[in-house]
Amino acid sequence: MIRLVPGTVSLGGVEMANHLVLAAGILGTTGSSIRRVLEAGAGAAVTKSIGPVASAGHPGPCVVELGDGLLNAMGLPNPSREFGTELASLKGLPVVASVFGGTPEEFRKVASWFRDRVAGFELNLSCPHAEGYGAAIGTDPGTVEECTRAVASLGLPTWVKLTPNVTDLPVIGQAAQRGGATAVVAVNTVRAMRISTELRLPVLGNRYGGLSGRAIFPIAVRCVYELYESVEIPVIGVGGIATAEDVIEMMMAGASAVQIGSAVRENPGIFREIAGELYRPGGVSPEEIVGCAHG
Amino acid sequence: MIRLVPGTVSLGGVEMANHLVLAAGILGTTGSSIRRVLEAGAGAAVTKSIGPVASAGHPGPCVVELGDGLLNAMGLPNPSREFGTELASLKGLPVVASVFGGTPEEFRKVASWFRDRVAGFELNLSCPHAEGYGAAIGTDPGTVEECTRAVASLGLPTWVKLTPNVTDLPVIGQAAQRGGATAVVAVNTVRAMRISTELRLPVLGNRYGGLSGRAIFPIAVRCVYELYESVEIPVIGVGGIATAEDVIEMMMAGASAVQIGSAVRENPGIFREIAGELYRPGGVSPEEIVGCAHG
Amino acid sequence: MGDRMPLVMEITDVVTETPRIRTLFFSDSIPFSPGQFVMVWVPGVDEIPMALSSPRSISVLPVGDATRTLCAMREGDRIGIRGPFGNGFRVQGQTLAVAGGIGTAPLLPLALGGKVTTFLLGAATAPELAFRAPLSCATTLHVATDDGSEGHHGMVTALLDELVLEVYDHICVCGPEPMMHRVLQVLAEKGLEGRGQFSLHRYMKCGIGVCGSCSIDPSGQRVCREGPVFTGDQLLDSELGRYVRDGSGVRRRFD
Amino acid sequence: MGDRMPLVMEITDVVTETPRIRTLFFSDSIPFSPGQFVMVWVPGVDEIPMALSSPRSISVLPVGDATRTLCAMREGDRIGIRGPFGNGFRVQGQTLAVAGGIGTAPLLPLALGGKVTTFLLGAATAPELAFRAPLSCATTLHVATDDGSEGHHGMVTALLDELVLEVYDHICVCGPEPMMHRVLQVLAEKGLEGRGQFSLHRYMKCGIGVCGSCSIDPSGQRVCREGPVFTGDQLLDSELGRYVRDGSGVRRRFD
Ligand SMILES: Cc1cc2nc3c(=O)[nH]c(=O)nc-3n(C[C@H](O)[C@H](O)[C@H](O)COP(=O)(O)OP(=O)(O)OC[C@H]3O[C@@H](n4cnc5c(N)ncnc54)[C@H](O)[C@@H]3O)c2cc1C
Ligand SMILES: Cc1cc2nc3c(=O)[nH]c(=O)nc-3n(C[C@H](O)[C@H](O)[C@H](O)COP(=O)(O)OP(=O)(O)OC[C@H]3O[C@@H](n4cnc5c(N)ncnc54)[C@H](O)[C@@H]3O)c2cc1C
Ligand SMILES: Cc1cc2nc3c(=O)[nH]c(=O)nc-3n(C[C@H](O)[C@H](O)[C@H](O)COP(=O)(O)O)c2cc1C
Ligand SMILES: Cc1cc2nc3c(=O)[nH]c(=O)nc-3n(C[C@H](O)[C@H](O)[C@H](O)COP(=O)(O)O)c2cc1C
Ligand code: FES
Ligand code: FES
């Protein structure tokens, strides 16, 4: 396997200890769980997505465990502004606040609450199962550009997380770039559903949900590959990553760093484990690897 | 498990022995292999997609076997008009010709070659990895409507196969319906990619390909569920189906029948096996099941 | 590994344990260790965590929508079950159990499995003392009620003073948070916190360790995955008894 | 079951078997049965089916882009391998092998495994007789060349007339289609078609039984999956010797 030379990573303005970032919405709800993941070897962490009003999200079931992935519809539960309390203890750590809203103004307002406490922002323009939020607005290039600009105007590194549930991903990526994104993150979950044949009902309380984990890895690789050819800013790859080999594959597709979500469930120590395999003194320079499959 | 009462099925004008249809592009290249699948218990069969000019498709590798699915980029290899020879021996059997073209006229021309030899047509507006064909034109509602109308004008049952790689699937389904489709088929493969980290190249000769099999089942269920709520014509569900239980789940999402592709690879006898489990005299009426998860 | 869709089960029997608590028996047995829980899908309402009170039952106190719907269910109604999840109690030798109210549910199968030497059972009032009869057969049972209508008048924790705690290898506790916090204090005073096993109730959305809504401070441990049972030493100086987070993640203090 | 990405291997050695045929040895062994094939990824060119001529080699005749690129490869070059696929030969007792040209490749490991009693080897001309030396050690070898430069002057099938075919439990055949067709006719005349095992070459796109491009008439069997080896009775009245389909599926007749 290819090994990378270890070293810190600067990703769209965020300084990280390695290429492995905790994905939004996974153990990102409390200050102490974020700290736990950082201590377990993540190079940086994205928080749970925080919005303009506190919410408990969708009624359950919120998750279906599949053989090769996870289907979830949390519905963006979040404590809203109160999340500042959680962030207080994390100041100075490589923590990126994921934010969402229904309008550019809301995005900016939410982000501004945390501007002194985080290393950067990630716009959730991509949650596939929240009415009026996330992918509901992340599929329109104009809105994506405006929301990005609103958050980027705060002067912190601004990542934009994209949904794969669009006809033309590069167009959305370019809109984010125009709005001032310092990196794009691909991808959020793929819109999906499972039905209980016994109860004759969709299993998820919200009926629709988002697919993550192994099943979507080839889709995420494709999205990163497409974006690498269409934007100038760095691409962060996410979707189904569980091994060091997956990280290398995603980087060859064009990812300057990766995020890991579903795989953390079975093993919060996964960051340290992957890093242990991924890095070796004398290894290959990441620059040589990122995007090298574009030949 | 729920069992259905056995009986013939009329699906958008095509009369079938059961609800289980061979999906396009799987063992559908020769008359004898199609006959083999029908003899192995399929209620109907869709042929390989046939286009205006003969082609050997993309250079290999054309397929990557994944733990939970299949990634392929065949590139629509097809014998074009010569395919008539293959169909000759199948006259009277429930065979649906899958056709593609770059324009409505091409669609109509190709379909017209086979009009006397098949039970109906399926428009491939959804292959995610053929330049200028398939999904390249299946993402625009206007084009979908026109292509559908061109083929439907031949007077045979006309199914339209949709790509999941769009922002708004219902809009495309409605376009097909306006064009005169007698059923929509959802879904074709999900655009995806894998990279060989050793060779630093996408594995598929065409780089991009389409994901099928188990991994996409939750995505296909979601697409069928969405379409059931947005079109009046029957929906045919396809994507990852491998068991009788999957068939029931897809029907509850709204499918009036299903197609099976990737699962045929391991087991061409799968149609008979599923039918054996799915049907029982005294079973539930399919009408009670189709769409019942919409509550 | 195949899909793990919720297992749909029929309610076969509903038993009235107390004026408020119902035990719902369902069709299939679930192999589990006492203290593990399942996520119970109440169709059309919600999905909530519930301890297994036996391999084929849950025992429910109605506090809100989902639990009230469950308590109103009858034979033939159906629920979905995911799990079992979590770690459960790990005991050997002499074990003391301390239970308050519905917190008795996860301790019941431990006691009926012959693993509990002494059982301290508390409730607000005599009729609310759940599972009294089976517990008195399987263990040495001591009872307390807040209103003094039976047993000791006062908190169940007061019963601790009458025991020589050092003789117990494990002290398993489940009940209202202030009660559990008090037990931890008592144990800590004697340096016995390492013998305590506390089954925590926290808001759970996923039940499988992915969402983080059940994380406790300051360790960041997930109640659904590393818990729900934690040893006393893991909980010293923790949020236990101070606050819980609600469904949105906002902290709610105990007063 | 995990992903089965192509296994990337380094060419460790290239052996010149005949003026045209090259054997490429690669780094890792592939467990297989003689007659099974692999899909060989020639990066940037194509992926093509190739019999394994040993657990760590393929033997290639250059006929087009991909095979020519392979034949020009050197130590250190890399290829991808998927497989092995297909059924392979199934023999016991007395076995006769009949090989023409590059068709010798899948029969070589059968012979070197001691499974072939008598081996009939044909080629256009003496220098193109592949694998002669190893075959003559492992079997009783009879040779034919079209130009008479060595052994029998004429088709390898003519050698059949000199043998008592009835003594062979299996007759394994691989070579140009007209040659295989002729062998089948000879066997059929004696009612021995059931003992014949023919390894077919057909256009293959997927190699795993999904695309159908390798299906043969009239059975619809897939050469990549139910084959590449078929018994003679399976091939009577089939397309064998009459036509093959090209990459687009158009039939090309043998004349
Ligand atoms: C591991 C575990 C085991 C449990 N075992 C049992 C049991 O055996 N029997 C029993 O009756 N109850 C048990 N509970 C508590 C039970 O899950 C809650 O009472 C239930 O979720 C409330 O749902 P509701 O819709 O009825 O009430 P809601 O209207 O949602 O809320 C009512 C009250 O319950 C609290 N609550 C709501 N949701 C949860 C949740 N998901 N987790 C914890 N508290 C919540 C709220 O803070 C509020 O105070 C257990 C909880 C946990 C975490
Ligand atoms: C099961 C099997 C085992 C084989 N084993 C060997 C082997 O051990 N050594 C060897 O040299 N060759 C073998 N072949 C044949 C080899 O696959 C073809 O020669 C090769 O695919 C030609 O590719 P190309 O790009 O070089 O030529 P092309 O330019 O593609 O074609 C040149 C000629 O080869 C034929 N051909 C093209 N592609 C295929 C294909 N995929 N399958 C069959 N014929 C094809 C064409 O019809 C044409 O006549 C085998 C074929 C099969 C099906
Ligand atoms: C339970 C769960 C909750 C999630 N919550 C969020 C969220 O709040 N914001 C967001 O942008 N993405 C969220 N995601 C998406 C993940 O960040 C990630 O994009 C996706 O899961 C794909 O990565 P994975 O396959 O590694 O999990 C969530 C995913 C899961 C499984
Ligand atoms: C090898 C292969 C070839 C295919 N060729 C076609 C095709 O020619 N036309 C078409 O409409 N769909 C084609 N498809 C898509 C399938 O018909 C089907 O929509 C998809 O594979 C999802 O179903 P499955 O998961 O059951 O395979 C092909 C799929 C595969 C795997
Ligand atoms: S409930 Fe989601 S992590 Fe515990
Ligand atoms: S090569 Fe595709 S089925 Fe045989």
The count of DSSP E runs of length 2 or more, i.e. the number of strands of chain C, is 15
Distance from N terminus to C terminus of chain A (CA atoms, Å) equals: 19 Å
Strand content of chain C: 25-35%
What's the architecture of chain A in CATH terms? Alpha-Beta Barrel
Q: Determine the mean pLDDT of chain A.
A: 95
Gyration radius of chain A (Cα, Å) is: 18 Å
Q: What is the multimeric organization of the chains shown?
A: heterotetramer
Low-confidence stretches of chain A: none
Task: Kindly provide the name of the CATH class of the largest domain in chain C.
Answer: Alpha Beta
CATH architecture designation of the largest domain in chain C: 3-Layer(aba) Sandwich
Number of DSSP helical runs of chain C:
5
| Count of folded domains of chain A | 1
The CATH C-level class name of chain A: Alpha Beta
From the spread of the alpha carbons, the general shape of chain A counts as: globular
